[in-house]
Amino acid sequence: MLQQQAMALLVMYATKKLDEYLKSVSENDDIAAKPVVEVTEIETTEYIVPEKDAIL
User: How far apart are CA 23 and CA 41, in angstroms?
Assistant: First the structure.
């Protein structure tokens, strides 16, 4: 009986500490997601000019 009460108290304590930890993690700005860097692509057009003696 005493062992079950001690185990229940230990589980309650661990749950409380876990809850406190999770709340503190969500308030920490250091682990926030970094802003997305937008990448722009430059469109280019390639012109292929056939040689004069090319076989068609």
Answer: 41
State pLDDT tens for residues 1-56: 889 999 999 999 999 999 988 887 766 566 556 667 777 788 888 888 877 776 76
What is the residue whose two structure tokens read 């000019």?
49
Find the Cα–Cα–Cα–Cα dihedral 17, 25, 27, 9, rounded to 10°.
-10
For residue 31, give the 3-state DSSP assignment.
Answer: helix
User: Quick one: CA torsion of 4, 10, 16, 22, rounded to 10 degrees?
Assistant: -120
